[in-house]
Amino acid sequence: MRVYRAKDYKDMSRKAANIISAQIILKPNSVLGLATGSTPIGTYSQLVDWYKKGDLDFSEVTSVNLDEYKGLPGTNEQSYYYFMHQHLFDQVNIQERHTHLPNGMEPDSKKECERYEELIRSLGGVDLQLLGMGHNGHIGFNEPGQAFETGTHCVDLQESTIEANKRFFASSADVPRQAYTMGIKTIMQAKKILVVVSGEDKAEIVKKAFFGPVIPGVPASILQMHNDVILVGDEAALSLI
Ligand code: F6R
C-alpha cells in the first residue's frame, strides 16, 4: 500500500484527482469505480476544473458506481444517481451511456445484482476503484460483520444508518431501508484501489483498517490483502499512522 499525506482536504482532493487523472491519461477508456459521500466531492470538483481547462477528456471513460439506495428514482436528490450527475457526470464529457449505477428502481434484487455483476464483468472489470470509508470501516454499503466473499447484493440498512440519513428526508419513513452495493469481493477485484479519507474523526478507523487485523468486523481491513492500494488522506485522518 502507498500512503499519500496531504496537508488538508483540498490537498487530499487534488492528490486523489491527480491519480484518477493519470489513470485516464494512461488509459483513456478506463473503467472507473466511483463512490459518493462527502469525502470525494472535492476530488470530483478538481477533476471538473481540469476538464474545463482542457486537461482531461472523459469521452472514452466508463464508470460503475459502488452503490445506490433501493427504491429511490434518479430524480430524487438523495439518490446516488442524482449525486453523480450533480458532482461529475453533468459537468464533464463522459457519455451518459457509459455511466452505470445499480438501478434502485429494480424491485427484483436477485435480478439487479446479477445484472450489475455481469455488467462489470462484461466491461473487463474495474481499472481504478475510488473508495471512501465509514467510521465503522464500511466500504460501499458493506457493514461490519458481512462475509468478505460477497458480490453485488442488496443490504438492509442498519438502524444507525437510517437514523443518520433521516435529516436528508422529509421524515424517517421516507428513508430507504435497503440499498444495492458492490460486495467486498467485487471491490477486491478492481485492479487498483484509491481510498480517500479526511478529518480527525476518521483517524481511529484508518489505523484499525490499515494496520489492525484483517477481520469482517472492519470491512475495509480486507484492503490490506489487495496488491495495489493507494491511501490518500489529510494530516488529521492520518494522524495516528
Ligand atoms: C459511498 C459509499 C460509502 C462512503 C462512506 C464514507 O458511495 O459507499 O461507503 O464512502 O460512507 O462517507 P463519507 O465520505 O461521507 O465520510
Automatic annotation (TrEMBL):
<keyword id="KW-0119">Carbohydrate metabolism</keyword>
<feature type="active site" description="Proton acceptor; for enolization step">
    <location>
        <position position="67"/>
    </location>
</feature>
<dbReference type="GO" id="GO:0006043">
    <property type="term" value="P:glucosamine catabolic process"/>
</dbReference>
<dbReference type="InterPro" id="IPR037171">
    <property type="entry name" value="NagB/RpiA_transferase-like"/>
</dbReference>
<keyword id="KW-0378">Hydrolase</keyword>
<dbReference type="InterPro" id="IPR006148">
    <property type="entry name" value="Glc/Gal-6P_isomerase"/>
</dbReference>
<feature type="active site" description="For ring-opening step">
    <location>
        <position position="143"/>
    </location>
</feature>
<comment type="similarity">
    <text>Belongs to the glucosamine/galactosamine-6-phosphate isomerase family. NagB subfamily.</text>
</comment>
<dbReference type="GO" id="GO:0042802">
    <property type="term" value="F:identical protein binding"/>
</dbReference>
<dbReference type="InterPro" id="IPR004547">
    <property type="entry name" value="Glucosamine6P_isomerase"/>
</dbReference>
<dbReference type="GO" id="GO:0006046">
    <property type="term" value="P:N-acetylglucosamine catabolic process"/>
</dbReference>
<dbReference type="GO" id="GO:0005737">
    <property type="term" value="C:cytoplasm"/>
</dbReference>
<dbReference type="Pfam" id="PF01182">
    <property type="entry name" value="Glucosamine_iso"/>
</dbReference>
<feature type="domain" description="Glucosamine/galactosamine-6-phosphate isomerase">
    <location>
        <begin position="14"/>
        <end position="227"/>
    </location>
</feature>
<dbReference type="GO" id="GO:0019262">
    <property type="term" value="P:N-acetylneuraminate catabolic process"/>
</dbReference>
<dbReference type="GO" id="GO:0005975">
    <property type="term" value="P:carbohydrate metabolic process"/>
</dbReference>
<protein>
    <recommendedName>
        <fullName>Glucosamine-6-phosphate deaminase</fullName>
        <ecNumber>3.5.99.6</ecNumber>
    </recommendedName>
</protein>
<comment type="function">
    <text>Catalyzes the reversible isomerization-deamination of glucosamine 6-phosphate (GlcN6P) to form fructose 6-phosphate (Fru6P) and ammonium ion.</text>
</comment>
<comment type="pathway">
    <text>Amino-sugar metabolism; N-acetylneuraminate degradation; D-fructose 6-phosphate from N-acetylneuraminate: step 5/5.</text>
</comment>
<dbReference type="InterPro" id="IPR018321">
    <property type="entry name" value="Glucosamine6P_isomerase_CS"/>
</dbReference>
<dbReference type="GO" id="GO:0004342">
    <property type="term" value="F:glucosamine-6-phosphate deaminase activity"/>
</dbReference>
<feature type="active site" description="For ring-opening step">
    <location>
        <position position="136"/>
    </location>
</feature>
<feature type="active site" description="Proton acceptor; for ring-opening step">
    <location>
        <position position="138"/>
    </location>
</feature>
